[in-house]
Design brief:
With 1130 residues, this protein is α+β, with helices and mostly antiparallel strands. The chain folds into five domains: 144 residues, no CATH class; 210 residues, Transferase(Phosphotransferase) domain 1 (Transferase(Phosphotransferase), domain 1, Orthogonal Bundle); 77 residues, no CATH class; 232 residues, no CATH class; 191 residues, no CATH class. It contains 31 helices and 51 strands. The strands form 16 sheets. It has a ten-stranded mixed beta sheet, with helices on both faces. Strands 44, 45, 46, 47, 48, 49, 50 and 51 form an eight-stranded mixed beta sheet that branches. One of its GO terms (molecular function) is ATP binding.
Length: 1130
Amino acid sequence: MAKIGRGLALLRREPADHSLASELIDKFVSSNFQEPPRDYLPATCIPKLVTKKKIEAELKKIEEMESPFREVYPHDARERLATWICEHAPKCFAITLQCDPKDAVYLLLSMAIFEDLKFHDGLLPLADRQLPTPPPEHPYDYDEVSQVWTKLKIWDFCDKQWRCLVPEFSPEQYNYNLPDECIFPFTKLSVTPKVGAFGTVHKVLIHPDHQTGYTMQYTPRQTPGPNVQLILEAIQQLSGLADALRCLHNCKGGYTVDTAFETSNGQQGIHPTIPIRFQDPHGEETDYIEKSNTKSIRHGDLKPENILRFLGQQTGLGTLKIADMDLAKQHIVVTQDRTHLTSTRYGTIQYEAPEAMLLNGPRSRLYDVWSMGCITLEFIIWLLYGNDGLENFYNQLKGDAQQYCQYYEWAPGEERAEVHKVVRDWIKAMQETDPECSGNTALSDLLHLVREKLLVVPLPPDRESSLNSGKTLAPPAIDETRTRYRATARQMWEDLNEILSRKEIPGYLLADYRLPPLKDWVFSVDTRFAANLSKRSELLGRRFTFDDDMSALEHRAEACDFCKMLAEVSVKPDGSRRKAVGFERKQSNLLIVGEPFPVLSIFRSFEAELPTAIQLGFPDPPQPRTDTSFEFMRMWLEDCSNPESDNFEHQNCRTKGDSIPTRLIDVGTIENSTLQLVETQEERILNTGYIALSHPWGDPKNHPPFCTTRGEVLEAFKKRIPYEELPATFKDAIYCTQRLNVRYLWIDSICILQGDDGDFKEESTRMENVFSGAYCVLAASRAKGQRDGFLGPRQRHDFVTFQRGDEKPFYVCKTIDNFNKDVIEGSLNKRGWVLQERALARRTIYFTERQTYFECGNGIRCETLTKMHNKMASILGDPKFPTKAMEGTRAMKIAYFQGLYKLYSRLNFTRYEDRPFAIAGLEKRLQNAFGTRGAYGIFDDGDKPKSGLFHRSLLWQRGEDDDDAECMTPIDFPPERNVHVPSWSWMAYKGGIDYLDPPFQSAEWETSELIPPWTRGRPASTDSAPPDGQIVISATVRNFDVAGRQQNEVKFSYDTERRAASDGHRVQCVIVARLKEARRDWERVFYVLLVTPVQGITGRGVRVYERVGVGFMPGKFISLEGEGTKAEIV
């Protein structure tokens, strides 16, 4: 024992092991999925640990040894080897290091041999326990190599390699063919496995490093997501099911009551006479051909399992048909007149209607309508959020018991059923938060049908609707003032057809993501913020409505100020007069019934106590420059930015930028307002907080902008900026900055050097940091140019005061809280630079003609003290843009970026050559969010196994809105900008764009004849960064001839004008995508770029082309045979 003790003492004198091998082993994780448990290295550990610096450190250990290899592998050779390892073989290095971490010679020679053999991580695992065959140009002496790679070392490498080759799981891949030696990154949970005839199912936890595209928090599915084609097919199939149910419910003799029907192709048809055999729950069979009008049939067990899907070539969803009629029941007499009532619960519990629980009650054909309501709701959830969303809904419906339950529940303390709270909450959440369900869209109308007519407990008055046999009227449902009754199959079918009749309305099948719909603004009673001023609490509310005849209202308006105000707001937008008008109050707003936006607002004074929840606030906002106005601004900013606040709604607003702008204006204080321009890299600044100004420049021809230029002006401004020479907008910005107790201000024309020798190009790349790092952005929404200012007096607003006796008053005024009109559709937001400035800002104060607004990640606040929220507007107001936009499905994400670019393409510029620069910050964030590269409005995801963003972003077309020009105009970029925007980017042109979109999940993207410019279509491209000014797409150009085309068979959209090439050649095409619906290429629809050759051939002998348009046509018109012409599109 003494010898062992002395040995341990000597060992303790050895330095601690901080080697890379030790670091790797420390990161090992154990998987208990296999027996015995096996250790593995999580996927993210290798790129984090096996860096070039650490590789060089391991290889450098050879210098510590007395070995001739030090001269054979000097520093330069080891550095070159380390570079190769880092780029191509980090896993091979980590495995080799584990085999013998103490032998530096073995490690260096082993990796040198791997380099000679061109054996890299992509060739792992090493199979058959032997080294790979060397390439012909690098033959090797097996005896020499075997001195390094002995059989024992090879066996050891093969055993240890599995620790670094643990699979990663992704929703993009379904099948995995893995070798027996593979280690699974699973941790078995303490749940009894389920054993079946063919295998065992375990519940496991997957290591987060080995699952991509998944999250521990529920998010909607990434793909396929809602798209026009899928939504249309879903509603068409639901209409078909409703039609089949209508026919089933109205059987008459050998035909249905409604004999004629219209097929999907518009032809008339007849439902044939067929005898139907039924088997009731008591085992009795009946051949049924009904002879009386009072006879009918119900299905009785409608559920997804009893709806068959027949796949076809023309649709992705297929054809849905009702099946499994075993439980269908024949109604010999009208349901409500039967004396022998149904008592057996025979349907699937989850989809059964509430009347199934009424033991003395009948079950009518409307039982099936309830089941269809359940199925339709699940269809909507699946369309929006995929299988994950549907599973989430199921789990919530099951509750803690985790047992399937119905879509209804019993009202507490009452003997009546109501729609299940989980179902009500999901419907409400979708209507309020999902843009596909909250606007004028097909899914919104479909969800309304489910809520208002299908998932309705009460049956019509001529049907049994209570526990008793008598006919009674049912009470209203929870939170409703009137009783709704369940629809019939015919009514469901008619409503679905009404939805289909509106399919051609733009944006109806899929929401338009460009501007937030006016009707979707939510005005919430927000007394928490106002209570900081009033110290009062909000009250409970109740709804009220009233109707009036316009003649009577106008007559009373002569003597009543409130009636006068009602009459004024009742005038239609086109100026015409209504015959009658109805008003309803929603919280603190009065709306005209049937119209989306409030016309009157109600406010209570701070001391008033009203019997309903009315917003604290001001009917006439404070005037600009007043103490009250700036007190509001300071409170908004403090509430949003205070890190000690317990208001977690502003967490995302409190992030800070990593850098400060190159230059800032020191505005001093109110008492000492000496202005000077500060170079932040040269001079010490007092703090890093600053305000940024977003403003219009105006017409530079009539009023040259106030700006900084290099030389004397810059040096003078660093000493003093002459306040008296500043335009009014800049003076107002300085005054606001001082009143908000902030020392520094950023204004683009002053802080960026203008002119040919300025630094605009360098500074424009920093706009993302400038606006995201600002403490606040001031938006001069009122101003038309630098000379206008934004703190001038505003028009006062009329209001009516209501007061009874000694009670405190409340006020009614015309609604002025209209962020949509004042800001989003305002003149400042039509300026190209402002879109990026708004999206990147953490918080913004907007100065408009009506009032001042404050926007941050928690919504929009008004000077009236109203709080507003809109789902689409909040995406641009997201302080961590584009986090909120990325929460949707993949289809929604794509639709969002397309909508954003469509909006941006229609904005105005003083200098249109700014177009690529004014959105560069947003573009960078979108690329990071999508995990892609790219530029100029084009995403390059060619290095991903499932791409498509590159192709979709290429398929832009000239805008087709009424306000769009017939042709786009090329932008002339001056040489000093040192930028070349390629012809295949819409940023090379002036004008609005739209997108030519293949339906989701229906296109095969071309990858062999269309190579992206950055990734070159490969995961690791060595030439992925083209030289500046030479961004090109490699493509195969093909001829086409559309002679003999049919109407609507071909569509071409030319960017500028239809023209031939410079050498007189005709327009040719490049294939971007082809639809999957047809088997043979000549039948398929091809999406193409239209191109023409330009004069010039590259050094590699490749012809140069430019894009002139986009379109689609059947393959029969394209010359698909042959190799085509290899080309580069510039």
